[in-house]
Amino acid sequence: METYRLAGTDLTVSKLCLGAMALGAVQDERTSFAILDRFVEAGGTFIDTANNYMFWLDGHTGDESELMLGRWLAARGNREDVVVASKVGWRPTTVGGGLDDAEHLTAQRIGAAIDESLARLGTDYLDLYWTHRDDRDVGLAETVAGMAATVTAGKARAIGASNHTAWRVSEARALAPDTVRYVAMQNRYSYLQPRPGVKLAESGHVHATSDTLDFVAATEDMALLTYTALLYGSYTRDDKPLSPQYVHPGTEARLQVLDEVATETGATRNQVVLAWLCGHPGPVIPLVGVSSVSQLDEVIDGVNLKLSAEQWRRLSDAA
């Protein structure tokens, strides 16, 4: 698997980031370990989690993903070989609470939260630490200072912003010292696009826009990780229909071209979507969670698929 050097950092990451959200919560330990082992075997190094996955399931606290990943790191003894990212900002402050009861991105909370994540993960540093949301109830300068402090304390090697708009990340970077600015964004993005301006059904999701992509491409030390890249299986599964936000004439046009390129390459729809994402300037790194090793193998083949310039442009121009 190819790798990228994240500009502005000393981090080298695989072109696929494995989302660990369901590991330890939906997937049991045996399946979770098998997925993680296969990812590393295929050349993957970049793993993403958060301090709240998956608190919304009955009987869960939000500790599950980090704890599972920590057990795997301890069992394999490979902490130095992988790039581990986690997040702060969407963990409920009370047992049984929801997103409306989430922690705020104060400097004090950020400092406490990273210590909690490090303890669950069984490590003394994170490679990349994300703000999980844009908390408008806290001054941006305070949040930036709190995130920067995790780097100066040696607890994080780099910081990024998840679910932010480009202009807010630009403002945050202007407030931070050059050595600890946000170097990555994480937003929802896939080949199919929702209707412009529509509110996504999932609370907290912020979709990447053309402004996001322009900002990432034009900013030397900035990468974009794209979550929900495969739209919950909607590209290939009849039992996973597209959400209403994606039902519009442009979707049919893009699916037609997607099927044409899939036929030309002998790949699945999912694989072409991933190859298209990887073809963006930036870089753009798909962040994908899977529930089985076979799903992971399909995803790996997708990020390794090379589209021709003509195929990539045809996909991009479809509307």
Detailed description of the structure:
The chain has 319 residues and is an alpha/beta fold. The chain has one domain: TIM Barrel. Helices cover 38% and strands 13% of the residues. The chain contains ten helices and ten strands. An eight-stranded parallel beta barrel has the order 3-4-5-6-7-8-9-10, surrounded by five helices. Helix 1 packs parallel to helix 9. The chain is globular, with a radius of gyration of 19 Å.
What would the keywords be for this entry?
TIM Barrel, alpha/beta, 319 residues
From the 3D structure, determine the CATH topology.
TIM Barrel
Specify the number of helices: 10
Give the CATH superfamily: NADP-dependent oxidoreductase domain
- Number of DSSP-assigned strands: 10
Q: Rg, please?
A: 19 Å
Q: Mind summarizing the main beta sheet? A: 8 strands, parallel, barrel
SS-derived structural category: alpha/beta
**Strand arrangement, largest sheet?**
3-4-5-6-7-8-9-10
Morphology call:
globular
Q: Summarize the amount of helix as a percent range.
A: 25-40%
CATH architecture: Alpha-Beta Barrel
Mean pLDDT: 97
Topology as H/E string?
EEEHEHEHEHEHEHEHHEHH
First-last Cα distance = 31 Å
CATH class: Alpha Beta
- Domain count: the total is 1
Low-pLDDT regions: none
Describe the SSE topology.
Elements: E1 3-5, E2 12-14, E3 17-19, H1 29-41, E4 46-48, H2 64-76, E5 83-88, H3 107-121, E6 128-131, H4 140-152, E7 159-162, H5 166-175, E8 182-188, H6 210-218, E9 223-227, H7 249-265, H8 269-278, E10 284-288, H9 293-304, H10 309-317
Helix pairs in contact: 1-9, 3-4, 4-5, 7-8, 7-10, 8-9
